[in-house]
Amino acid sequence: MLEFLATLHPGWFALLALVENILLVGVGALLGHVALRLPGARRLTPDPGPVNPLELALVGSTTLLNTAVTVAGWWLWKDGVIVLRTDAGAGTIVELAVLVLVMDVLMYAGHATVHLRALFPWVHRLHHVFADARPITLFALHPLEAIGFGAMWLVVLAVHPFTVGALAAYTALNLIFGILGHLGVEPLPPAVRRNVVFRWVATPAMHVGHHAEPRYNLGFYTTVWDRLFGTLEPGYDRRRTADVPEPYPARPA
Description:
2 strands, globular, Sterol_Desaturase_Related
């Protein structure tokens, strides 16, 4: 597969990257709508209603920018800046864990930065226009945020030669966490949420809480940094362990 990608004309690779990113949005939306219909799913924010044109436009621009990042990564790989390995085994699981932990701290830091008073109105506030999130809200980003996340991702790949398997697994995991966090519901049953693992691994309700109360829950995959820096929403653990999680109050329009 890597040999085939290395020989592709740039135009054909760009088209392939565009198709890949459109499919990621489509698969994410489909998974989200399935999760919304799980028997135990509890809505924590009001139903968002119909999709508006601004949200669709942002999803479209993010898809195009993600395609550009994919193409940039391809060029860096062809030039030897990014090295991909094809070996498999237990090392792939270790690399996946490293990727998740590294990206978790970087994304927390980046997320906290765009919530600074000087930056929030110009960049991240656009994402928070959609307080009552839906699956595609994950992709409704200001262009600078999409570029920033993409650049962060490429720098991480350039620092260490990861395996293709670890990258594919991380991409899937990132999509699952992103979609589940933008449903406005908690689909996990109480017995799962109460497990000690989910004290540290973020449940869907964590990012739902961020959209309801934007100053809290800045992490993505874990609660580690929010607990450490005091940005965990005070009612999060109560909702996480409750039989029926309490909905968040409706945010003023």
